[in-house]
Amino acid sequence: MKISYSHVHAEIHREIDDEAKHHIEKLERLLKRYDPDLVQLHGSLEKQSRTAEFSFSLTLALPTGTLHVTGQGGDVRASAKAAFAEIEAQVKKHQQKLRKDYVWKHKGGRGLPKLGQNASND
Fold first, then answer.
1. Fold of domain 2-101
2. Hey, which of 12, 41, 65, 103 has its CA 20 to 30 A from 6?
């Protein structure tokens, strides 16, 4: 996975790297089917001038599509954590769509008797 950041100052860069380390490992586990050279993660940080909030946006470019999220928080770590949590959820949803999980959803146990019940309804 290729990782890049823009609009991130050097002193803040370390904070983002510390927070992102665990989340990037989790993303790599989720994306192990993709060629690592084809997966690109780009992060960008903005400080909201009117409020004391930070906005951290992530763009994940995959061979099958591009995902974009924005996380907001009171400090850099909180905004990065929110963004990574959202991108992980979007990756899972994207993979479910690719696998066409919605087609294979079955109503479990229909027509089968439950434990302790007879097959016939007398």
1. Double Stranded RNA Binding Domain (3.30.160)
2. 65
List the strands of the sheet with 2-6, edge to edge: 2-6, 40-47, 54-62, 65-73
Q: Measure the CA–CA gap between 80 and 19, rounded to whole angstroms.
A: 7
**Does residue 40 contact residue 1 with C-beta atoms inside 8 Å?**
yes
Q: Which of 65, 27, 60, 25 is nearest to 42 (CA)?
A: 60
Specify whether the CB–CB gap between 27 and 91 falls below 8 A: yes
Mean pLDDT by 10 residues, the chain (122 residues): 83 82 91 90 87 90 94 91 94 88 65 64 52
